[in-house]
């Protein structure tokens, strides 16, 4: 395609359309997850069982590791992460792209807090103990991890996108699972956070496409990226979502409510779903941005 040719506008339009469709779909899925797990008695029972299963596994190394990992996600570490995103963008002299990357973090966190505190309350449908009634949807820790990952994915140069995601993706995708393992959040909280960040990142990136700041890239095959980034994320997504769904069905529908195996299976299923969902939304964003350069300079003099 020529630098100023007629094909660039249709390309930007196609990219924008895909991003906007996924943003809308993610928002609808977020509402569906909340409706299924927070606003139904069956969903609340399953997630309460998952929390009970976690308490039965207090001695697991996973729980101790989760507490240790989550303790590092603080306001200070968040500030450092945002500063790194801003520094990368400013060094590249991409002020608009910097705003989108930092905005992905900021808007996601603001929306997560507003939804959690003022919009998506948790009704008591199963006469649960008071300690289980506090609203925690969506997860703030998962929102931080995934929004920083997505912000980094957007702000780095296209040729380094795979490296950046490879370095950070598995850590970020497992934060959701860690919040379940630590007993800080229910599985739906982490899935909701994943979908929220995906919706925000896609919506803001669609604004770049709307302003014509996306260009096609004739990318060559990258076997190392496929081996060390795509393959691990695909494995976590397929294994997590697949095994989590099976365990959810087993614990929710096939066993009687009082069966002592229900909490253990619910916890294992929720843990798997949390990891799988984070990996899946990361793959979705990478697929949307495949062969798409963001805020590419208009001429060699601007590079």
In short:
The protein is mainly α and 303 residues long. The protein is 72% helix and 2% strand.
Which properties best describe this structure?
about 300 residues; disordered C terminus; mainly alpha; two-stranded antiparallel ribbon
Element-by-element helix/strand order: HHHHHHHHEHHE
- Total number of domains: 1
* Total beta strand runs: 2
Side-by-side strand order of the widest sheet: 1-2
Distance between the termini: 19 Å
SS content category: mainly alpha
Strand content: under 5%
Shape descriptor reads: elongated
The total count of helices amounts to: 10
Mean pLDDT: 86
- How helix-rich are the residues, as a percent range? over 70%
Q: Biggest β-sheet: count, sense, barrel?
A: 2 strands, antiparallel
Gyration radius (Cα, Å) is: 20 Å
- Low-confidence stretches are 1-8, 298-303
């Amino acid at each position: 395609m020529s630098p100023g040719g007629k094909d660039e506008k249709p390309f930007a339009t196609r990219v924008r359309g895909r991003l906007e469709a996924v943003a809308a779909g993610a928002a609808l899925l977020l509402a569906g997850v909340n409706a299924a797990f927070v606003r139904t008695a069956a969903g609340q029972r399953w997630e309460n069982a998952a929390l009970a299963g976690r308490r039965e596994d207090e001695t697991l190394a996973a729980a101790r590791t989760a507490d240790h990992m989550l303790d590092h996600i603080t306001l200070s570490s968040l500030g450092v992460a945002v500063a790194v995103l801003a520094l990368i963008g400013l060094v590249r002299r991409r002020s608009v792209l910097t705003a989108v990357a930092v905005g992905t973090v900021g808007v996601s966190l603001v929306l997560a807090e507003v939804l959690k505190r003022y919009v998506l309350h948790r009704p008591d449908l199963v006469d649960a103990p008071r300690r289980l009634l506090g609203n925690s949807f969506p997860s703030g820790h998962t929102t931080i991890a995934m929004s920083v990952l997505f912000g980094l994915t957007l702000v780095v140069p296209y040729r380094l996108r795979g490296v950046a995601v490879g370095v950070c993706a598995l850590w970020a995708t497992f934060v959701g699972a860690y919040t379940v393992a630590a007993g800080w959040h229910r599985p739906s909280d982490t899935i909701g956070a994943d979908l929220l960040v995906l919706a925000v990142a896609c919506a803001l990136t669609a604004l770049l496409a709307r302003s014509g700041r996306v260009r096609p890239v004739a990318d060559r095959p990258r076997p190392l990226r496929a081996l060390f980034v795509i393959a691990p994320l695909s494995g976590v997504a397929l294994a997590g979502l697949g095994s989590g769904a099976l365990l959810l069905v087993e614990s929710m529908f096939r066993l009687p409510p009082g069966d002592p195996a229900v909490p253990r299976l619910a916890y294992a299923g929720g843990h798997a779903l949390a990891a799988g969902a984070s990996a899946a939304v990361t793959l979705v964003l990478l697929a949307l941005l495949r062969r798409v350069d963001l805020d590419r300079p208009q001429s060699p003099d601007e590079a």
